[in-house]
Amino acid sequence: PSRPLLRDRNFVWLMSGGALSILGDPFTVIAIPWLVLELTGDPVALGMSVALMGLPRAILILFGGALVDRYAPKRVLMLTKHVNTALLAVLAILVYSGHAHLPVVLALALGLSLASAFGIPAGTSMLPHAVAPQYLQAANGMMMGLRQAALLAGPLLAGLLFALAGDGSGGPRHMHGLALAFGVDCLSFAVSAWTLAQVKPRPFTPPA
């Protein structure tokens, strides 16, 4: 079943954009707590940043699913990708220029968490609208395998980036690695939004 799937433009665009976005996510997941710790040295602030990245998403993801059911998944997913791109671009610029401060970083972390509360259910709902029903099971398997590979590679690449470009441990002038991490994730969302725009949703018909 993988051969016709790999010839399906819809699936290829959706799979490549989704994998790129997943690959970029660990850069921000690692970089935000690291940035907060370098800015403050306060474990309480570190815990607050982690909570802001996770709790709003966990609480609102059911509401996000209901919103996706009401509106087109592609429209919701595209909106969240644009929001994430903008927030990460602001974060990258602030860190690179040395103007990142705790309240702003926490506010941006909250915004990213809120966007993911809608982006995750929208992304899950896109696949049945992108491939033919008889290939849905195979498509799910391929996407799951690609997701696991990206989740393994992402943190390794992020760690390598920090090691080469600086992780902020030498002071504000050495935070270029963190700024680049946000830039990489920003670029991954921008490119995945472009690939998503190439997907032409089809009406979902459950397989007989």
How large is the share of residues in beta strands? under 5%
> Quick one: biggest sheet?
none
N- to C-terminal distance: 17 Å
The amount of helix comes to over 70%
User: Using only CA atoms, what is the Rg?
Assistant: 18 Å
Shape: globular
What structural category do the secondary elements indicate? mainly alpha
**Total count of helical runs of at least 4 residues:** 7
Number of separate strands: 0
Question: What's the helix-strand series?
Answer: HHHHHHH
Provide the residue-averaged pLDDT: 85
Low-pLDDT sequence parts? none
Descriptive overview:
This protein is mostly helical and 208 residues long. The protein contains seven helices and no strands. It has helices at residues 2-6, 9-40, 43-70, 73-97, 102-126, 136-165, 176-197. The two termini are 17 Å apart. The mean pLDDT is 85.
Quickly list its features.
80% helix, mainly alpha, 208 residues, 7 helices
Summarize the structure.
By secondary structure, this protein is mostly helical. The chain is built from seven helices and no strands.
List the helices and strands and how they pair.
Layout: H1 2-6, H2 9-40, H3 43-70, H4 73-97, H5 102-126, H6 136-165, H7 176-197
